């Protein structure tokens, strides 16, 4: 009898704790949630821009046998933040003008996802450079990369 009372007391204490942000386990395995914190870096965050430049150079060199690189991204602006339902993964949609190593400038559209990083542990970036979307992943003219 004492054992049942003790177990009931422990369960009552566990259930009475205040709600908190989702843990790493909940974010990655969809338990009872997910609950998002709506954390996505700003559009002009140096880490975001560096990741876009790095992935662009890798894609061009690895898949298209090209030495094109993004030298910088200017005129960065936010297009939307969480434009869809509250339950959707929080995304920040941005655009800017990329200076490419061949001397040309191209519009780049990108979104920063709260759980889009490696194994969903941190934020990640999806991007498209207008005119250089060679595999047409976001066709037509990177329209599918925008909100």
What topology does this entry show?
Elements lengths: L1 H14 L8 H6 L16 H18 L6 E12 L9 E10 L4 E9 L10 E6 L18
Antiparallel strand pairs: 1-2, 2-3, 3-4
Description of the molecule:
The chain has 147 residues and is of the alpha+beta class. The chain has a domain at 46-145. The protein is built from three helices and four strands; from the N terminus they run αααββββ. The protein has helices spanning 2-15, 24-29, 46-63, and strands at 70-81, 91-100, 105-113, 124-129. It has a four-stranded antiparallel sheet with strand order 1-2-3-4, with helices on one face. Strand 2 (91-100) and strand 3 (105-113) form a beta hairpin. The relative contact order is 0.15.
Which features characterize this protein?
elongated, 4-stranded antiparallel sheet, 147 residues, alpha+beta, 26% helix
Shape: elongated
Structural class: alpha+beta
Helix content: 25-40%
Strand content: 25-35%
Main sheet, how many strands, which sense, barrel? 4 strands, antiparallel
User: Strand arrangement, largest sheet?
Assistant: 1-2-3-4
Tally of strands: 4
Q: From the alpha-carbon coordinates, what is the Rg to the nearest angstrom?
A: 21 Å
If you average the pLDDT, what whole number results? 86
Distance between the termini: 59 Å
Q: How large is the count of helical segments?
A: 3
Uncertain runs with pLDDT below 50, 5 residues or more?
A: none
Order of helices and strands: HHHEEEE
């Amino acid at each position: 009898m004492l054992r049942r009372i003790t177990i009931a007391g422990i369960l009552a204490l566990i259930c009475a704790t205040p709600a908190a942000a989702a843990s790493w386990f909940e974010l990655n395995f969809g338990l009872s949630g997910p609950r998002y914190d709506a954390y996505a870096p700003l559009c002009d965050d140096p880490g975001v821009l560096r990741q876009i430049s790095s992935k662009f150079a890798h894609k061009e060199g690895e898949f298209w046998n090209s030495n094109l690189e993004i030298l910088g991204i200017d005129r960065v602006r936010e297009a939307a933040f969480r434009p869809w339902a509250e339950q959707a993964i929080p995304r920040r949609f941005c655009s800017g003008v990329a200076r490419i190593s061949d001397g040309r400038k191209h519009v780049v559209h990108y979104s920063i996802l709260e759980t889009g990083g490696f194994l969903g542990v941190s934020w990640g970036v999806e991007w498209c450079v207008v005119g250089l979307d060679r595999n047409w992943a976001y066709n037509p003219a990177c329209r599918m990369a925008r909100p």
